[in-house]
Amino acid sequence: MLKKALFAATALFALAGAANAADLKEFRIGILGGENEADRLRNYACLQEDLKKEFGFEKVSLFPAADYDGVIQGLLGGTLDFAELGASGYAATYIKDANAVTPILTTKQTDGATGYYSVLIARKDSGFKTLADSKGKKLGYADPDSTSGYLIPKVTLPKDLGMPVDQFYSSTSFNGGHENNVLAVLDKKVDVGVTWASGVGDFKDGYTSGNLRKMVDKGTLNMNDVVQLWQSPLIPNGPIVVSNKLGDEWKGKLADFFMALPEKDKKCFEAIEGGEYAGYVKVTPEFYNAVIETRRATIGG
C-alpha cells in the first residue's frame, strides 16, 4: 500500500509539473552585461517576437544585467528561465548549483569549430608590436565571470609572458565587460585589454564574430586603430542554458527552436549572437568539464 501511495504521489507531482510547463505564460531571458544596454535590448527584440509567435507566450521579458553575475544569480535564484552564458559563467553556475540549469546548445563557427579565442589588443599608435612590448603597462580585464575576458588570460597568459600576469603588468583592472574594456583601451585608461573573437575571417573586419565584430558593426571601433598582440588557445563556445525548473519538455522545445533559427530568421540569429556563425550544435555539461575544473582550481565559484 505504501509503495502504491508513493507511486501515486510521484505521478501526481510529475503531472503537476508537466501542467505548469504547458501553462508557461512568461518566458524570462537574462542578457549578460558588458555591452550598451540599449544595444542589447535592440538585438534581442526580434527574439522576443519570434518566441511569442512560436510558443504563444503572453510575455517574453528581457533582463539585461549590469554584469555577468547578475544573470548567474538570476539563474541560481530561479528568476530567469534562459540565458546564453560564457563557459566560465556556466562553470560558476555549475559550481554553485550543478542542478540549476542545463546547457542545451552552443554556437558553431563558420569553419565548423565550436570554440573561440581571447585576444589581447592595444592601440596601434602605442607602438606595440609584440606581447613583450607591453611589459610594465596597464592591463584591462572585462568581467570576473568572463571566460575570455578574465579566466583564460589569467591561466594561459603567464606561459607566454614568462611570469605571472601581475608581475608582468604594472596594474590590472576590471572595466565592466568586453565593450567597455575595448573602449578603455581606445580611451587610454589601460594600455592593453582582453576581449573575445572567433579568430576566423579577417582581423580588419573584427573577424566573423565576437566583441570586436559587434563594435565594428555598430561603428564604435575601427580595426585600423588597434593591433592584436596575443591570442589564447581555443576556448569552448559558451552555452545556451535553460533553467531545470522548466523540465525536459521545454528544453527539447527550445533546442528545436534555436536549431531552426539560423534558417528561419538569420538576421535575428546574427543580431543575438553578434556576427556570422554556421548555426548551433547540441552540447552536454561534459563539454565544459575542463573550464569548470579550471575555474574551480583558479578562482572558485
From TrEMBL:
Key words of the record: Signal
Organism, as annotated: Rhizobium binae
Lineage of source species: Bacteria, Pseudomonadati, Pseudomonadota, Alphaproteobacteria, Hyphomicrobiales
InterPro entries in the record: PhnD (IPR005770), Phosphnate-bd (IPR017797)
PANTHER family attached to this UniProt entry: PHOSPHONATES-BINDING PERIPLASMIC PROTEIN
Similarity annotation: Belongs to the phosphate/phosphite/phosphonate binding protein family.
Statement: the UniProt record of this protein carries the keyword Signal: yes
NCBIfam families tied to this protein: 3A0109s03R (TIGR01098), PhnD (TIGR03431)
Signal peptide span: 1-21
Keyword presence, Transport: no
Listed name of the protein: Phosphonate transport system substrate-binding protein
A Pfam family recorded for this sequence: Phosphonate-bd
